[in-house]
Amino acid sequence: MAGPPRLLDLGCGGGRNTTVLAETGLAFFGMDFAHRPLLAARARPGVGPSRLVQASMKALLPFRDDTFSLVTAFTSLENVTEDERLEGLAREVRRVLCPGGLFFAYFLTPDDGYYLPLINRDSMGRNLTYDPVTDLRQRVYRVEELGALFEPSFSLLESETFSFPDVRSGAVHQRRLASAIWQRRAEAGEPA
Ligand SMILES: C[S@@+](CC[C@H](N)C(=O)[O-])C[C@H]1O[C@@H](n2cnc3c(N)ncnc32)[C@H](O)[C@@H]1O
Fold first, then answer.
1. Is the CB of residue 112 below 6 angstroms from any atom belonging to ligand 1?
2. Using a 6 Å cutoff on CB, does residue 79 contact ligand 1?
Protein backbone atom coordinates (compact mmCIF):
# COMPACT_ATOMS: atom_id res chain seq x y z
CA MET A 1 0.00 0.00 0.00
CA ALA A 2 1.39 3.45 -0.89
CA GLY A 3 2.26 6.16 1.65
CA PRO A 4 3.79 5.99 5.12
CA PRO A 5 3.00 3.05 7.43
CA ARG A 6 -0.31 3.51 9.27
CA LEU A 7 -1.15 3.46 12.95
CA LEU A 8 -4.65 2.83 14.35
CA ASP A 9 -5.45 3.86 17.95
CA LEU A 10 -8.54 2.00 19.25
CA GLY A 11 -10.65 3.96 21.73
CA CYS A 12 -8.51 7.04 21.09
CA GLY A 13 -10.83 9.26 23.14
CA GLY A 14 -9.96 12.95 23.17
CA GLY A 15 -6.59 12.14 21.67
CA ARG A 16 -4.46 12.38 24.83
CA ASN A 17 -1.83 10.31 23.00
CA THR A 18 -2.62 11.57 19.54
CA THR A 19 0.05 14.24 19.22
CA VAL A 20 2.77 11.87 20.43
CA LEU A 21 1.55 9.07 18.17
CA ALA A 22 1.30 11.46 15.21
CA GLU A 23 4.96 12.41 15.87
CA THR A 24 6.06 8.81 15.26
CA GLY A 25 5.97 9.52 11.53
CA LEU A 26 3.27 6.89 11.06
CA ALA A 27 0.01 8.03 9.45
CA PHE A 28 -2.34 8.30 12.43
CA PHE A 29 -5.91 6.96 12.50
CA GLY A 30 -8.00 7.27 15.67
CA MET A 31 -11.18 5.29 16.32
CA ASP A 32 -13.72 5.73 19.10
CA PHE A 33 -17.42 4.96 19.41
CA ALA A 34 -18.17 8.27 21.13
CA HIS A 35 -18.60 11.46 19.10
CA ARG A 36 -17.65 14.07 21.70
CA PRO A 37 -14.06 12.89 22.39
CA LEU A 38 -13.48 12.60 18.65
CA LEU A 39 -14.28 16.31 18.33
CA ALA A 40 -11.57 17.05 20.93
CA ALA A 41 -9.12 14.74 19.17
CA ARG A 42 -9.85 16.51 15.89
CA ALA A 43 -8.54 19.77 17.40
CA ARG A 44 -5.15 18.19 18.15
CA PRO A 45 -2.19 19.12 15.96
CA GLY A 46 -1.42 16.75 13.12
CA VAL A 47 -4.82 15.07 13.01
CA GLY A 48 -7.17 15.69 10.11
CA PRO A 49 -10.89 14.84 10.36
CA SER A 50 -10.57 12.14 7.71
CA ARG A 51 -8.34 10.16 10.05
CA LEU A 52 -10.81 9.98 12.92
CA VAL A 53 -13.44 7.32 12.68
CA GLN A 54 -16.52 6.80 14.83
CA ALA A 55 -16.97 3.04 15.24
CA SER A 56 -17.10 0.40 17.96
CA MET A 57 -14.36 -2.05 18.86
CA LYS A 58 -17.15 -4.57 19.45
CA ALA A 59 -18.03 -4.70 15.75
CA LEU A 60 -16.11 -5.40 12.54
CA LEU A 61 -13.43 -2.73 12.12
CA PRO A 62 -14.18 -0.39 9.20
CA PHE A 63 -10.78 -0.88 7.53
CA ARG A 64 -9.43 -3.12 4.79
CA ASP A 65 -7.18 -6.10 5.37
CA ASP A 66 -3.45 -5.37 5.89
CA THR A 67 -3.96 -1.61 6.42
CA PHE A 68 -1.87 -0.88 9.54
CA SER A 69 1.66 -1.56 10.76
CA LEU A 70 0.71 -0.80 14.35
CA VAL A 71 -2.57 -0.91 16.29
CA THR A 72 -2.67 0.54 19.81
CA ALA A 73 -5.22 0.55 22.65
CA PHE A 74 -4.58 2.77 25.67
CA THR A 75 -6.99 1.92 28.52
CA SER A 76 -9.77 1.11 26.09
CA LEU A 77 -9.82 -2.72 25.99
CA GLU A 78 -11.35 -2.55 29.49
CA ASN A 79 -14.63 -1.67 27.79
CA VAL A 80 -14.75 -5.00 25.96
CA THR A 81 -15.85 -7.24 28.80
CA GLU A 82 -16.97 -10.45 27.05
CA ASP A 83 -14.45 -13.13 25.99
CA GLU A 84 -16.10 -13.67 22.61
CA ARG A 85 -16.10 -9.95 21.82
CA LEU A 86 -12.43 -9.69 22.73
CA GLU A 87 -11.59 -12.74 20.63
CA GLY A 88 -13.54 -11.12 17.77
CA LEU A 89 -11.58 -7.90 18.26
CA ALA A 90 -8.30 -9.86 18.24
CA ARG A 91 -9.30 -11.41 14.90
CA GLU A 92 -10.22 -8.00 13.51
CA VAL A 93 -7.00 -6.37 14.73
CA ARG A 94 -5.08 -9.21 13.15
CA ARG A 95 -6.99 -8.78 9.88
CA VAL A 96 -6.29 -5.04 9.57
CA LEU A 97 -2.60 -5.45 10.50
CA CYS A 98 0.00 -6.00 7.78
CA PRO A 99 2.09 -9.18 8.03
CA GLY A 100 4.53 -8.71 10.92
CA GLY A 101 2.36 -5.89 12.32
CA LEU A 102 2.26 -5.11 16.04
CA PHE A 103 -0.53 -4.62 18.54
CA PHE A 104 0.29 -2.57 21.66
CA ALA A 105 -2.08 -2.45 24.63
CA TYR A 106 -1.83 -0.45 27.87
CA PHE A 107 -4.44 -1.59 30.36
CA LEU A 108 -5.65 -1.62 33.96
CA THR A 109 -4.87 -4.74 35.98
CA PRO A 110 -6.86 -6.34 38.84
CA ASP A 111 -4.14 -5.10 41.26
CA ASP A 112 -4.84 -1.47 40.43
CA GLY A 113 -5.37 0.37 43.74
CA TYR A 114 -8.32 2.41 42.47
CA TYR A 115 -10.23 -0.48 40.88
CA LEU A 116 -9.36 -3.19 43.45
CA PRO A 117 -12.29 -2.37 45.81
CA LEU A 118 -14.64 -2.11 42.82
CA ILE A 119 -13.90 -5.59 41.43
CA ASN A 120 -16.59 -8.22 41.35
CA ARG A 121 -15.06 -11.52 40.20
CA ASP A 122 -17.74 -13.49 38.38
CA SER A 123 -18.20 -17.27 38.12
CA MET A 124 -16.18 -17.29 34.88
CA GLY A 125 -13.21 -15.74 36.73
CA ARG A 126 -13.57 -12.39 34.97
CA ASN A 127 -12.65 -9.32 37.02
CA LEU A 128 -15.56 -6.99 36.34
CA THR A 129 -15.77 -3.51 37.81
CA TYR A 130 -18.45 -0.91 38.28
CA ASP A 131 -17.30 2.64 38.97
CA PRO A 132 -20.15 4.77 40.40
CA VAL A 133 -18.13 7.94 39.74
CA THR A 134 -18.04 7.35 35.97
CA ASP A 135 -21.03 4.94 35.84
CA LEU A 136 -18.83 2.62 33.75
CA ARG A 137 -18.84 -1.18 33.79
CA GLN A 138 -15.46 -2.49 32.73
CA ARG A 139 -13.20 -5.50 32.94
CA VAL A 140 -9.64 -5.50 34.20
CA TYR A 141 -7.18 -8.04 32.81
CA ARG A 142 -3.97 -9.75 33.73
CA VAL A 143 -1.46 -9.96 30.86
CA GLU A 144 -1.89 -13.76 30.69
CA GLU A 145 -5.67 -13.41 30.54
CA LEU A 146 -5.55 -10.97 27.65
CA GLY A 147 -2.82 -13.10 26.07
CA ALA A 148 -5.03 -16.20 26.19
CA LEU A 149 -7.78 -14.35 24.33
CA PHE A 150 -5.34 -12.95 21.74
CA GLU A 151 -3.22 -16.11 21.48
CA PRO A 152 -4.77 -17.62 18.31
CA SER A 153 -4.04 -14.43 16.38
CA PHE A 154 -0.89 -13.09 18.07
CA SER A 155 2.41 -13.99 19.74
CA LEU A 156 3.43 -12.05 22.84
CA LEU A 157 6.74 -10.20 22.32
CA GLU A 158 7.04 -8.41 25.66
CA SER A 159 5.06 -7.11 28.59
CA GLU A 160 5.67 -4.80 31.51
CA THR A 161 3.79 -3.63 34.60
CA PHE A 162 3.76 -0.07 35.92
CA SER A 163 3.08 0.98 39.50
CA PHE A 164 2.74 4.61 40.54
CA PRO A 165 0.80 6.75 43.05
CA ASP A 166 -2.06 8.72 41.55
CA VAL A 167 -4.76 11.01 42.94
CA ARG A 168 -8.27 9.99 41.91
CA SER A 169 -11.60 11.03 43.43
CA GLY A 170 -9.72 13.01 46.09
CA ALA A 171 -7.54 10.15 47.39
CA VAL A 172 -4.12 8.72 46.55
CA HIS A 173 -4.22 5.24 45.00
CA GLN A 174 -1.34 2.98 44.04
CA ARG A 175 -2.11 2.40 40.40
CA ARG A 176 -1.03 -0.73 38.60
CA LEU A 177 -1.29 -0.94 34.86
CA ALA A 178 0.40 -3.18 32.32
CA SER A 179 1.49 -2.98 28.74
CA ALA A 180 2.03 -5.73 26.23
CA ILE A 181 3.20 -5.93 22.65
CA TRP A 182 1.89 -8.73 20.48
CA GLN A 183 2.88 -9.58 16.94
CA ARG A 184 0.37 -10.66 14.36
CA ARG A 185 0.79 -14.35 13.60
CA ALA A 186 1.62 -15.24 10.01
CA GLU A 187 -0.78 -17.46 8.11
CA ALA A 188 0.42 -20.66 6.47
CA GLY A 189 2.46 -19.76 3.38
CA GLU A 190 2.75 -16.10 4.41
CA PRO A 191 6.17 -14.60 5.40
CA ALA A 192 6.38 -14.19 9.22
C1 LIG B 1 -10.32 5.63 29.38
S2 LIG B 1 -10.70 6.26 27.79
C3 LIG B 1 -9.05 6.25 27.06
C4 LIG B 1 -8.94 7.24 25.94
C5 LIG B 1 -7.56 7.33 25.31
N6 LIG B 1 -7.15 6.05 24.73
C7 LIG B 1 -6.54 7.82 26.31
O8 LIG B 1 -5.66 7.04 26.71
O9 LIG B 1 -6.63 9.00 26.69
C10 LIG B 1 -11.52 4.91 26.98
C11 LIG B 1 -12.03 5.27 25.59
O12 LIG B 1 -12.59 4.09 24.99
C13 LIG B 1 -13.75 4.46 24.27
N14 LIG B 1 -14.60 3.29 24.07
C15 LIG B 1 -15.31 2.63 25.00
N16 LIG B 1 -15.98 1.60 24.45
C17 LIG B 1 -15.68 1.61 23.13
C18 LIG B 1 -16.05 0.80 22.03
N19 LIG B 1 -16.87 -0.24 22.16
N20 LIG B 1 -15.54 1.09 20.81
C21 LIG B 1 -14.71 2.15 20.64
N22 LIG B 1 -14.32 2.96 21.65
C23 LIG B 1 -14.79 2.69 22.88
C24 LIG B 1 -14.38 5.54 25.12
O25 LIG B 1 -15.28 6.36 24.38
C26 LIG B 1 -13.15 6.29 25.62
O27 LIG B 1 -12.82 7.35 24.75
1. no
2. yes
